[in-house]
């Protein structure tokens, strides 16, 4: 059903909300997301939305996820961008969405492709979101079928800064082209949003405006997302977070409180009834916000339906069409429903899934649990977070491997704030092992990830602490770096001869070669915490699937860096050669009680 029809059909005095999800990177994450969506459906969202990767990078996964949710009695909004899309791909996606019964499209320009200072379009018909809206409205079979939404930017568009009046005029242009509703970019300055909202209405824009609400999950992710999105952060929010930045639980609690207060104010002061929650594929914070608001609803129930293959047997005229379902839709609905039963909360014997809503509630990034729907949480804004000109100013024009070594050394010595693999300055935690990272880098082993060994440090520690207070945190030392095949073979031989079971490794290259001594299905928890009143929390896990996912991303970064330079240039040859010839290596030493164990092992004899 079209979103605008559902909005019109509801009791106008009642609030409504939608949830946003992204397609997980791994198969098990995908399966667990279906369970999570099914649980969240008990809160009775008006619809859910599924994001779209830049250039169609998540096309198959996005369409699969949107199709499953649409066929499971959850009206679905499919995000669709025209960023770097191949000619003809938009038509394929619109046709596929229609075939899946999806009636709602969120038409977006999308993020600029990496390696480009300014956005460019592969399909010349689409340079802005308004072009996509106009195109859908120009095709009769699409115009009557799709309800089209667009994005609003209360804090402006991060990579296309114009004054607010111009931005609102562009929003009006999208509505005049045929947009039916607006979902806004995330924001944290409620006062400014209210001013922006009144301007939007004064401009004559009368379609539903649905504010985008993203509860703060961690301090680091909040800092990054506000920087990349250009979202305003009031001084009161900055001060509140600064005081609790080392306590992940308090940050998450504050995020729930702030989101609750924001929704209440918008509802009371502007009469806004609908809200779009960016879940980041996590569920507990959003659920808590809705419970605080008193909007959590009652458990979702499904009516019995008559299964009929309408393509060959039209339903009887005396049967309500809403009580008829196709065989394929019935199968999908049953699949999602049964997946919830397998991981219901409080069910004994489920280990880490005892609490299905919160087992992955702590930060879940590059080395999180690959089974989590939030594993490898997508970069919402893409790119290196800086422009091409800024990147060239920082990283120069390397033509030899020694110059790359110097770039990585400059980063370690804080002479430059970023590398393509590290979007922020060297952390205080990495400073604890600075001399070891420097020694590896001088050898030409370019380090891109690491952590020191930690044995029971207080969870409130300013450097390595995380999670709730009154706990203890632990870490195994690991390091990852790029090196040549000869060095990989030497490292593997040393581990086999002298590792004595203490050292595990993963190594892979761009061509798909992969080596490891980790047993099949083995999983190395390298960060964990012990806190009052809960099971041991494991926030960083290194195993084959998460390593391979990161490996593919890491080598794509070399390609993206190379694209800054013209084809055939010395810089491009160097970077593409590194991509083709080097290996990514990840090494863990399990003796977390000996902080120097990994470094002594790696550097001994060199």
The total beta strand count reads 19
**Strand residue percentage:** 15-25%
Strand order of the largest sheet: 1-2-3-4-5-6-7-8
Distance between the termini: 66 Å
Class from secondary-structure proportions: alpha/beta
Described by strand count, sense and barrel closure, the largest sheet is: 8 strands, parallel, barrel
Shape: globular
Task: Identify the notable features of this structure and list them briefly.
single chain, 606 residues, alpha/beta, 8-stranded parallel beta barrel, 5-stranded antiparallel beta sheet, 19 strands, 17% strand, globular
Descriptive overview:
The protein has helices spanning 3-9, 27-40, 59-70, 89-99, 129-138, 140-143, 164-176, 190-202, 219-229, 235-244, 248-270, 284-293, 327-341, 388-395, 401-412, 428-431, 434-442, 485-498, 544-562, 570-581, 597-603, and strands at 16-21, 47-50, 76-81, 104-108, 147-152, 181-186, 209-213, 274-278, 306-307, 324-325, 446-451, 454-458, 472-475, 477-483, 503-509, 514-516, 523-530, 537-543, 583-589. Helix 2 crosses helix 13 (327-341) and helix 5 (129-138) packs parallel to helix 7 (164-176). It is globular, with a radius of gyration of 25 Å. Helices cover 39% and strands 17% of the residues. The protein starts with a helix and ends with a helix.
